[in-house]
Prior knowledge:
The structure holds two protein chains of two kinds.
Chain A lengths: L1 H26 L11 E2 L1 H9 L5 E7 L4 H17 L4 E7 L6 H12 L4 E5 L4 H8 L6 E2 L1 E5 L5 E5 L5 H12 L2
Parallel strand pairs in A: 1-4, 2-3, 3-4
Antiparallel strand pairs in A: 2-6, 6-7
Chain B lengths: L1 H24 L17 E4 L4 E3 L8 E7 L4 H5 L1 H11 L4 E7 L6 H10 L6 E3 L4 H6 L3 E2 L1 E5 L6 E5 L14 H10 L13 E3 L4
Parallel strand pairs in B: 3-4, 4-5
Antiparallel strand pairs in B: 1-2, 1-5, 3-7, 6-9, 7-8
Amino acid sequence: MKLIFSLVIILFFFSGCSEENGKINSDVQSSYENRTIPVVDEVWLQNKINNRNGKILFINFWATWCVPCVEEFPDLVKIYNEYKDSDFEFLSVSVDLPSEIETKVKPFLKEQSAEFQVVVAEEKRSDKIINLINPEWNGAVPLTVIYDAEGNRQEYIPETKEYESFRNSIERVKSL
Amino acid sequence: MLKRSGIVLSIIAVAVIAVLALTNKSETISASAPAKIKIENFTLTDIYDKKHSLSDYNDSKVILVLFIATQCPVSNAYNSRMVELYNNYKDKNVAIIGINSNKQEGVEECREHAEKNGFKFPVLKDENNVIADMFEASVTPEAYLLEPGTYKILYHGRIDDSRDKNNVESKDLENALNEVLAGKKVSVTQTKAFGCTIKRV
């Protein structure tokens, strides 16, 4: 039974990964209501960190219930719009519950005009996800991490920052 | 002879530095040992202006310290579970203490919140987050099980594995509590979960 369950989970995530490459980009064009927001685990995130294709990776962990996260969100939208056409990948990881994707996450993204890729962290894998990002991280959001084009973590920002500070961090990682 | 030893030592030094540099690079995926947090006795005032020291609970079997918040939706999702914990363990000589370290949540707000949610355990106000700093607590809710007297941390982390009560599969804190009460070694001493940042001064 456990084996079947594991296979179902694996298939689910593989389908999520393939969807991520093809469907999400096209969904950006369509309405916020129709966009796909997959629920991902630490394996999906590890693959994302590893598969850099010459781009740096900017990951922001947040939640709609987190006031400082909401406050810094407009600056993150600005950062994405500024860097999206360069060797830069933006990943927004919401730690809201999957049941809140339709009711809270999507309406918030629409309100913020956020067009970047958004996934929801699988709650049951939070321990593993936190340890993957940094074993020192206690799980407090917001958190921003920036990986270089080789997938090495170069910036670990466990607090709210403003546009200029994010920009400086990105420029530093790009210059490495 | 001395010159040769010097060269050998230099090679070893370079190799050690190289290994250290490589180890540092893979830091993102390595599991680090839990930080050594040293808890010492402290005294805080509760929401009814009564002083409580950790040493007041030295005769209990175990001390549960919960860092909580009034405004954090994650912490609030656990209010009823905290009440259940108190009800289930109060007669088993388990001391339960709630601590609010958030700078923007005043004593009056904490009192209203505790009364509204039926908290029967003492809720202490940690002005200037001194105690949160000592515990290195960073989120709410965050639980610590302490050995009375020594204040050694027996368990540190989440209450369970889901904000949604109906979705709980692993009652990590209760498992640790039951193991302590049964005189067993705690099998899972540390867990993590997403939560609200403790707003510090």
